[in-house]
Amino acid sequence: MDPICNRIHELADEVIDLRRHFHMHPELGFAEFETAGRIEHYLKALEFTTTRMAETGVVAILDSGKPGPCLMLRADMDALPVTEANDVSYKSTHEGIMHACGHDAHMAMLLVAAKVLAESRELFCGKIKFVFQPDEEVAGAIKMVEEGVLETPKVDAVMGIHIWSMVSSGRVSITPGVVMGGMDVFKMTIRGKGGHTGYPHEAIDPVIPAASIIQSVQAVQTREMDAQKPTIIMFGKLAAGNKANIIPEEVYLEGTIRFLHDVNPHDPQSPTNRFIRICESICQAHECTCSIDIEHENIPLVNDEQMTVLAKTAAADVFGSAAPIDEGRYIASEDFSEYTARVPGVFVFLGCANTEKQTHIPHHNPRFNIDEDVLIQGVELHVKGALTFLNQ
User: Fold this and answer.
1) What distance lies between CA 191 and its chain's CA centroid?
2) Is the pTM of this model over 0.70?
């Protein structure tokens, strides 16, 4: 085992302790104040100078003192509004908030990687920008971009890692091209005319078109889109009425439209514009009106070809061969896409699924947990990835 690997393995307990601390103290997007403070404290102990971005984001730069490119390594910080159901010693202490997506692990892995790389700066040229980003769950990356995270110094490439419960522990997924979906969020209000349920002919019932819309828009993904362009339309919220014998004045719906392919939001044949067409037509047929608000939350995440090759090289070094490296594409979305849309980048999925440890539970589930044995692999992927890029 080389000295870098030895050092990383010496820090195995430290990365687990960090992960468990973050897990016990989760905070929602743009409210990660305690989290940011803990990150700053750790980095300053390593003699990093830290700066804040987007209020709770933390950035630190490691300069080798030798000319070369600048690589950005990123971890996300925010938790989810989920009540944890796990019975573990490090269970969330914040009621109704939980790290149910692995961001606690991401921060821990990147902090320990920063320590190892700071101790090894003689081994590379150029700079490394460590970025701890808030609010990934609601597209916080764009705010970091707008505040200049890719500038001063100018970032030449970016790498990120996500703990992934759809990949087995001891394996990793690295794929060129589109690897995660884009996502639009819709909020829709259908308005009719309220009335008495005993006299529906005197009202205009908005529930009927709402029910029809929920069924009919499924045709977008099953009949209108090429099967080679995966698209998913899901409703996550539906609200109407106050009493059983009152026809409501309006129905409110929220949901998401996800697509695992490049989409031009101005194209009338895009999944979202097809969705709008169906909704408006159904409402018109039922003499209702509808207002639809679309938030283009995430664009598809695209891995650069050369950066993907580089990441696979680093992963083969970490795992001992290329055998544990899989390829996979996932329709879930990630705002890391805002970085890879601007500079060459690669996003790596680190498997954490272990049925014996019950760490195969889906992300965002109240019983989500990770196989902590893989944390050290994540640290090594960051370190070996950075050294491979900066010394190529």
Assistant:
1) 34
2) yes
